[in-house]
Every structure is written in structure tokens, then in C-alpha cells.
Fold this sequence. Notes:
The chain is mainly α. A hairpin with a 4-residue loop joins β4 and β5 (724-728).
Amino acid sequence: MGRYELHYGGDRRNNAPAMRRDYNGGLIAFSRYFSFFSSRTCSPESSINNQFRLLCITCDTLTTTHNFSQLLRQCIDERSISGIKTIQAHMLKSGFPAEISGSKLVDASLKCGDIDYARQVFDGMSERHIVTWNSLIAYLIKYRRSKEAVEMYRLMITNNVLPDEYTLSSVFKAFSDLSLEKEAQRSHGLAVILGLEVSNVFVGSALVDMYVKFGKTREAKLVLDRVEEKDVVLITALIVGYSQKGEDTEAVKAFQSMLVEKVQPNEYTYASVLISCGNLKDIGNGKLIHGLMVKSGFESALASQTSLLTMYLRCSLVDDSLRVFKCIEYPNQVSWTSLISGLVQNGREEMALIEFRKMMRDSIKPNSFTLSSALRGCSNLAMFEEGRQIHGIVTKYGFDRDKYAGSGLIDLYGKCGCSDMARLVFDTLSEVDVISLNTMIYSYAQNGFGREALDLFERMINLGLQPNDVTVLSVLLACNNSRLVEEGCELFDSFRKDKIMLTNDHYACMVDLLGRAGRLEEAEMLTTEVINPDLVLWRTLLSACKVHKKVEMAERITRKILEIEPGDEGTLILMSNLYASTGKWNRVIEMKSKMKDMKLKKNPAMSWVEINKETHTFMAGDLFSHPNSEQILENLEELIKKSKDLGYVEDKSCVFQDMEETAKERSLHQHSEKLAIAFAVWRNVGGSIRILKNLRVCVDCHSWIKIVSRVMKREIICRDSKRFHHFRDGSCSCGDYW
DNA sequence: ATAGGGTTAG
């Protein structure tokens, strides 16, 4: 209304009241009136409608084609479907030729975005020009109404209207959308018969894109080769296909031959070929293409920049990627997401979460890609509080039932030791698929809920879903962590029979299962089945030897490992610890000097604890670097005193160095998880204490933490390098088996 | 009067 009033209220520039006096005079006033409207952008619908009504009433005599076209164009500019309807009434009243008015009205309605009205007009037409058919089909596809588009296309053929290059260049997208491969092939045949496949590059690229979407890059390439005059769009469509199907070498080759044929790449081309360079970790070509992109002036195109960013992140060149991101003027949802997920993939979780918060501050909406990446950042570092806040964001944006965000949450809660919460998320998912099931099974597995994991596995089978390699690993891990030895063996046999591809990791898990159960001979037998036994497999067997103190077998395995990997650090440490636990101190000294010669340094034992979203790091034996070390030591001493009252005795077999007994005790008291727990107790924030460790928890710490959980009446959850331990009221969820 | 290609995830 405002604009209407302004208009008649005497706007100085346009002087509308004067025009009102003039327009009885006909055409001159009409066109002046139009130029007035044209100078305005976006009038409210009600206002424009009134203006048109006024116009049409006073201009009944003005019924030439030219003027109706002009009026319709105005409606299109103003997106006024009611204006179109008014004009339609006047066309009818003035006896305007129907075969022309129909086409014009359909065209205008489509451009205003009202496909249903266009269809209504179309259905009332007796003669339809092919352009009208084509426009309708094209707009239906544009608005993702592929089904109706295909129906229109079929109707067109039954009405004996032969599709032309315009029809075909749009309809193929509808076929790929609906996976109508058979019908697509018939229409491809039609394109061949009409000679359009070869002569029209629009038809050609639509065909290439369609075959690409069907996953048939070979077919797409054959079409491309037949097209006479190839252009950017055509070749880019093929590059996209290769890139999305992971045929990255082909994508780069296609890009190179494009340059040879002097076809200029554009932002779309760069956006796709760079993804392939990233997948190939081909930083050479990646940088070369980056250069070309700058030279040809596409360095500031958002999609190309995003791909460039992704490429650098896949190649682990984090600094380069940050430089690219800084150049992006207005990063959108996708570019932020690419940055966040890439940082997580490069182990830069903290930075990823900082960027995520920046994105939120800039009011860029996250999507399920963004959220699952941010969540993965949290779960990698077991950042429970941070993760819970992101759960809040997931809910706020309505992704609670989404399988991607949901799997991220399941993984988070699983990795924070809360399989109950993981299960709650899992049960609200709108769609259960292999990946969300795998994530849930894995969460149960690492928390030692073997039965629950196996129940879910059964459900997966009952749902008719095909387990994949991650499923197999999760299920075996579940058996392994819950001491379900027989179940594990049976499942493994059935997986072998089902011809599921078993990887070294699966074998390593079984070797661990058998080995820890003391069935070392069977475990060793299993390794003979593995075609390319790797370090992990042998090390697993070796650590089982260590648990059961099988020195001879361990020495045999060690020789094998050192053949593959001379001076392997983990092996030497394991052997040294085995000698230490069997009292062979001279062999320990031998191993240590060997390590010293090779300049190997032991990976320091570390623990992390998150208090109020801040992560604190503790290193074994390091009593001074934390700013609150005094309070920590005070609390630790008191905790040890209290736990001794309840029967804690230091387990000196956990000390793998030959030293005096009191020194052994002192070294045990300085284990990183003990420091972390003492710190958490001092800070005294409520709820469970969550500790993250880089190595496995030792027997001494394990029995100490059990007692502390009783003394403090607090749950302590410890995620070590392999699994979870939930300490509650003097016992641990692992059943002392880890 | 009507037509074709792109970037992020478990």
C-alpha cells in the first residue's frame, strides 16, 4: 500500500497525478505509465494488481499484441500472477487470437513461477506450439517436478508432437532423477535418429550428465566423443562424472585434453577437477590448476574456491587451505563445512570447533554435513560438554532425526562412554541404515556391551541389510571386549563362509580375542591364513604373549616383526616390558640400549580431562607443568591415602624399570590418569569424571581407580587407546578384562 | 518465445 500512496501522494520525480489526467489520451499515457512502473523494483502484489486493474479498465481499446506483450513483461518483472490473470480476462474480452494468447500466458506464468497456473492455461489450449511444450517441461524440471515432466513428455509424443533439441536437452535430467534408465535409452535413440546427439551440444551435455548420474561414465564418454563441437559445459559434465565416481585420474586427464583442445575451463570445471586432485593427493596438478584458475580470473568464484580449499585439506596442506579460505569474501554453508570437516580430518579438531563457532556467530546455518563434522571433532577428543552443546544446535536446526547428524551424535556419545545416550539418539532416527547401525554397534562394542551389540547385529540381518567390513569389525570387537569368545569364533566362521571380504584388521581382532583368552596356538594358526600379515597383526599376537608371559613365542614373533620393520618401537617396548614382568632385567637393559642406539623415544603416556569445556593435559611423571600442580599433588596424596584404607596396594609388576621398591611406588603414583583424576577431584565439578588416555590403562591404575570410584562415590569413565572403562562403586564395566 | 555442467558428511 505504501508505494501506491506515495505514487498518488505526489512524488516529485514522477508527478503521478498529472499522468492520471493524461491517460484517457491512450497510448502515450500508457507507455508513460509503464516507464513509471519500470523505474520501480518490486512493488507489492496488491499494489501492482490495483494499478493493472485501473489500467485495463481505462484502456479497453488497446488490444494490440504489442501492448499485451508489454503488460505481460511487466507482470513477469513484478512476479504478479494476478496481473496475468487480469490481462488474460482482457485478452479474452477483446477477441485476442487464442493460439497466441495461450502461449504468451503460459510463458508469463512460468516465468512468475506459477507452474500450476501455466498448466491450467495449457490444458485449455486447443493448439499448442512446441515451444510451449518445451517451456512447461523445462520449468517442471527446474522446480524438481520430474515425474510430471516425464508425463508431459509422454503426452507430447502421444499427441504426435516430435520432441526437438530443446525438449531433449531438458528431459534427460528428469530421467536420471527418476532412475528411468530404459525410457532414457529410448529417448537417447530418438536423439540419435534426429541427429541431435551429434549436432547439438546442449543435447549432448544433457546426455553426458544423465549417464553420469546413472553412474555410467563409459557411456557418457562415448556420447561426448560423438558430439561434433565440444564446449566447456559438455566436457565439465564428464569431468564431474569421473570426479564423483572416484575415477579421479580420468577426471584430470579429461581436464588436460580440454586444455589441449583449447576449450577454456570455467568455475564449474575448476570446482570439479580440483576435487579429483584432492582425492588423488596430486598436489602437483592441484597447484598447477590453482595457477590456471588465478590466471583465467576464476579465483574468486565461490565453488572453485571451496574445491581449492578441499583440495589443500585432502593433501594435508592446512596452511594453504587457510590462506584460500581467507580469500573467500562471503563463505557460504558449503565452504564453511568444507573447512570444518577438513580440519577434523587433519587432526585439527580444536581449530575446527573454533571455526564452527565463528560460522554460527556469522549466522550461517549449519546443515547435516556441518554438524556431523563438528561432532566428529568433539568425539575424536571426547569433548563431552562441547558435544552436548552441538547436540543442542542439532536440535535447534531440526536435525535430530537426520541419519548423518544422528550418526555423529551416536559416535560422540559412544566415544564419551555414554552408550545409553547414544541409544536414545539411535532410537529417534527416522531411517535406520547400515552406517547408523554400525555406529551404534561400535559404540556398544567399545563400551563393553557385547550382548546389546550382538542384538543390534541380529536386527540388521533381520532388516535384510548387508553388513559391511565396519559391521564385521564392530561385531568382533564387541565379542572381544566382552569376553564372548565362543560367539566371536562362531561369527567369524560365518563371515568366512559368507564370503565377506575379511581384512587384516578383522584377523587382528580375532587374534586378540583368542590370544587374550589364552588360546595362543589357535591365534598363531589364524595368522597363517592372512595373505599379507602386517605389523598390527603381529603386534597383537605379541601383546597376547606378553599378557600370558609366553617368552619363547614372543621372541619368535619379534624376529618376524623385525624382519618387516627393523627396530619397530612398539615391539621393542613390548618385549622390554615382557622381560621386565618376568624378572629378566638384563634382557630389559639389552632392549633399552638397543632403543637408545636407534634413538627411539618412548611415546609419553598422556591423559586428558575436560573441565568446563577446557581440556587439561597430563603427562606421566610430569608434576610441575600444570599451573595447579600443588593442589593436584595434595589431592592425589589424600586420594591415595583414602584408597589405601580401603585396600589399595601398589602393583609393582606394572613398573618396567629395575628400581628400588619405593621408587617403583612413586613412579606408579605419577601415572597420567592418576594426575588427571586428582585434578578433576580438586576442581570438584559435579557428574562423572571423564578421562581420555593415549595408551592402555595399566593394572595398577585400573585397581586404584576402582577404589577411588567407591571412595569418592563418583563415576569415572576412562577411554583408553582401545576401549572404555566405566568405574562405579568399586568395579569396572570391563570386568577386569582388557 | 523454449535448453546443458559445480563445491561439504557418518
